[in-house]
Fold this protein.
Amino acid sequence: MHNSNTLDFKGLETLTVDIENHIAQIQLARPEQLNSMIPVFWRELPQTVRRIDEYAAARVIVISSQGKHFSAGMDLSVFQNMAKDFGGEPARRAERMRRMVLELQDAFNALEEIRIPVLAAVQGGAIGGAVDMLSACCSRYCTADAFFCIKETAIGMTADVGTLQRLPHLMPQGLVRELAYTGRNLGADEALRSGFVNQVFADQATMLAEVMKIAASIAQHSPMAVHGCKHMITYTRDHNVSDSLNHMATWQSGMFQMPDIQAAMQAQQLKQMPEYDDLHPLSSRMQDKQ
């Protein structure tokens, strides 16, 4: 893709990125450390997904990980850094803590805010901060050995990076409360029954192959139409039906244009795959700031 040729992700410490056929595959790449989320991760993930979006370099993002486990969540070093800063005048200390939590939240807010759908493929354990991240993805898939854990409760704190805000929209609230209060593991079968994951696969290789097929199916559609779907589903989660319908009408007044619709109809008539233009990247002036 022409837009992705200018992107270079070789310097990342915690992730690998591969963009091909309109699909960006992001892998958590610290398997020996169980892909724990060290301080640099909280900068690299949002910067990476936002750059992909800003350059319109992909139409779908698939997040997976290397090693036996998806992610052990927040690395101990993050907590240690917080402990070092936990001093000084109470009001200023509290204000700094609030800003720090908001910055951590922003790392996963980025997954929702970008125009591109984000799919997650999980094997092994997804613990603590990993559940926060998965909750911000569009769809989740896992292997039969996967498990999910709201671990924060067990270490004496309340999960604060999105799990408790997003999970009640994805699963029955009573189950979310049980998982949060007890800190117990949610296994793959129960995650499937409760709607947290879409499908369970026998192993990681099978899962990745199938999730990439789903990503390819998404990527063949109009990126404007898919962007509209993502935006509207997220919007209606946070607003009532009346407001969401009104927002939809306003969206269509500008976004409903004929070229993509004509391309889709023509492709169906000719029994061919439609071709669509990419979403526009930001201006080169903005991109130069990356």
Residues 27 and 215 are 15 Å apart (CA to CA). The radius of gyration is 20 Å.
